[in-house]
């Protein structure tokens, strides 16, 4: 099974500033998918952004962007112009790309607190 | 609106009792999943189903059972064999398999199970 590591249990950021969450993973595959999910206090898991490993261009979704370093097996998430509503736990996840691969492997999560 | 619903939001189980958690989706997804989340931790896969009338064990299937009689529904039963069932349970769904298709998982709001 693939291992996903999030080394920062907690992070705090001032409103309107930028925070970067780190994620590393272990795989021998060449093609795969990476995701960041957000879990606010409501506990609903919400997809933030996804990246396909064969794409060199880093994915962006509004204020959220990733820095995908395939050789280093690193997939960090940058939240720009942080808002109070960004306060949540953020999970990095890995999925193989095979047609019969369904498993999503999650990291332990990083709790982000946005301060007013 | 398309989405995933889970019920109930809270569920209480007595010792020796089986309980069933409901998960329904109207996204026309072939695949469905059940995850368990313990406090401060990531998600662990219990069972998943690629298609109707088929399902596979995940990483922590012991003490749980599922059925997939309809495309829209994937109920999870927590049996009396599960000795530590207190957790937050999340259901998800995605498109099915296929070369080059990203099986992005979308989640329901979750069910919190507590043991009396």
Question: What are the defining features of this structure?
Answer:
A: 116 residues; 4-stranded antiparallel beta sheet; 0% helix; B: 116 residues; mainly beta; 11 strands; 48% strand
Description of the structure:
- The complex is a heterodimer of chains A (116) and B (116).
- By secondary structure, chain A is mostly beta strands.
- Helices cover 0% and strands 53% of the residues of chain A.
- Chain A has strands spanning 3-5, 10-14, 19-21, 24-26, 32-39, 46-52, 60-61, 64-69, 74-79, 88-96, 104-106, 110-115.
- In chain A, the strands form 3 sheets. In chain A, strands 2, 5, 6, 10, 11 and 12 form a 6-stranded mixed β-sheet that branches. In chain A, strands 3-9-8-7 form a 4-stranded antiparallel β-sheet, with no helix packed on it. In chain A, strands 1-4 form a two-stranded antiparallel sheet.
- The mean pLDDT of chain A is 94.
- Chain B has 116 residues and is mainly β.
- In chain B, 0% of the residues lie in helices and 48% in strands.
- Chain B is built from no helices and 11 strands.
- In chain B, the strands form 2 sheets. In chain B, strands 2, 4, 5, 6, 9, 10 and 11 form a 7-stranded mixed β-sheet that branches. Chain B has a 4-stranded antiparallel β-sheet with strand order 1-3-8-7, with no helix packed on it.
- In chain B, strand 5 and strand 6 form a beta hairpin.
- In chain B, 36% of the residues are buried.
- At the A-B interface, strand 5 and strand 6 of A face strand 5, strand 9 and strand 10 of B.
